[in-house]
Amino acid sequence: MFALVPFLSSVLAFVPFQSTNGATMKAARIASFGAPDAVKVEDAPKPAPKAGELLVRVHASAVNPVDWKIVQGLIPSLKQSFPYTVGCDVSGVVEALGADVASFQAGDEVYAYANLMRGGAFAEYVVLPASDVAKKPKSIDHAHAAAIPLAALTAWQALFDAAKLEAGQSVLVHAGAGGVGHFAVQLAKWKGAQVYATASKEKLAFVKELGADVVIDYQAQKFEELVKDVDVVFDMVGGETQTRSLGVLKKGGFLVSIVGPPSAKELEARGLRGAGMLLKPNAAQLKELATLVDQGKVKPHVSATFPLADAAKALALSKEGHTVGKIAIEVVPAPKK
Prior knowledge:
Layout: E1 12-13, E2 19-30, E3 40-47, E4 53-63, H1 65-71, E5 78-79, E6 84-85, E7 89-97, E8 109-113, E9 125-129, E10 133-135, H2 142-146, H3 149-162, E11 170-173, H4 179-191, E12 194-199, H5 204-210, E13 214-217, H6 223-226, E14 230-235, H7 239-245, E15 249-257, H8 264-270, E16 273-276, H9 283-294, E17 302-307, H10 311-319, E18 326-330
Parallel strand pairs: 1-5, 11-12, 11-14, 12-13, 14-15, 15-16, 17-18
Antiparallel strand pairs: 2-3, 2-6, 4-7, 4-9, 4-18, 7-8, 8-10
Helix pairs in contact: 3-4
């Protein structure tokens, strides 16, 4: 039910990487649209950083629903070029610097959201603009760090940049156990908001542990009978759930959606505000998130890990739609404890 895809409001074109001296790497790529098993791990050109860029040795990535939707050709606003290397979340180690990069050095542990114009995270190496990269949290491994960028940035930008959620306000988070949702619940609670969250029955305890004040079994309960006059609704479901959500907002309340903007006509008729959102890379926000993680105030949850060779299996699991938190891909196997 909960398909989490950041709303895309403009046409994006994929940017091919420049290879370096014929060197190759392993990458999970598609040559054409298809089911998750269309993703093949194969030799690909190793990218080289240009001015203002970093070459990062990828230790881990993470799966987002948008990944398998891209694989299947379900994001029409994106202009694909093939072969396309899948993946948007990166945690790894700086391998080399392009010209004019002074903020990092080789050996730095970093993480980033490789935006949808670039992709490339399901690979041994990726090139990223240095301006989009931040030092990874020190207290967690690469798999958990990779789980943060797309999902946590989406939650941050939806709640704080778009909806302007403040301490003392209230928010309803739909799909509170998912990749974006489990960060949204934690960030809203950290901000000092009263948090309502929906989830399936078997995930209610998990969402409660994240800090939700009230958890709602969306399969057995009608959230609009339990939630009244909230300041913000964070919609990750769309359809009739979005429509019903308008009724739980107070006058002047804000509905922010990552699956399509609410009707402007309906908002005006009800005296509400709202918007869809386009996720953007933001290194400053990643830096703040790393601090929150290291302080123990936000915890990324990884429910399953796969090696790069099984990227297609990881995407297939994501497509089933029952993931708690995130699925990680370990490009470099984590040391055994």
